[in-house]
Specification:
alpha+beta, OB fold (Dihydrolipoamide Acetyltransferase, E2P), two-stranded antiparallel sheet, 8 strands
């Protein structure tokens, strides 16, 4: 009975690992240049009492919404700000990123990993696979969100 249980657990793990590999192999490779196909219009936001940038995604970018993608970028951990279940991925190193005012909002992405990514330091180069979600209106999130994200070796 113990051997049967062990076998069932092993098969479950193989199935889960196979699904991750399957998603990664089907995922479309996307670059930050692809994601730069977006324009922004300034709009007053009552909640924040100032103007915010509202994205208008191109047809090509809209086609990626809800799709599995692969993307590379630089890690910007935000756990010290209380966001332990996510991090930010940037198309450029931290010293040149959106938060320093040197790049636009199209150059960063919220990463919501399937499981916590440990040992990720600022500017560590990462390759990730996950499901892309476009965000036009929620000011508490970035314009690009990668859900179910996992590291790709």
């Amino acid at each position: 009975m113990k051997n049967l249980y062990t076998l069932m657990v092993a098969i479950s793990f193989i199935g889960i690992a196979g699904n991750v590999v399957s998603q990664a192999s089907k995922a479309k490779q996307v670059t930050w240049k692809d994601l730069a196909e977006v324009s922004f219009k300034e709009e007053y936001n009552k909640e924040f009492d100032f103007n915010v940038l509202i994205p208008k995604f191109s047809k090509n970018v809209k086609a990626l919404d809800g799709k599995w993608i692969k993307i590379e970028g630089y890690a910007i951990p935000v756990d010290e700000l209380g966001f332990e279940d996510m991090l930010v991925l940037s198309g450029v190193p931290y010293s040149q990123c959106f938060f320093c005012g040197l790049s636009g909002p199209e150059s960063v992405m919220d990463i919501k990993p399937k499981k916590k990514l440990k040992g990720v330091k600022t500017d560590k180069k990462l390759k990730l696979v996950g499901k892309l979600k476009l965000n036009e209106r929620d000011m508490s999130k970035l314009n690009y969100i990668l859900t179910e994200a996992e590291l790709v070796e």
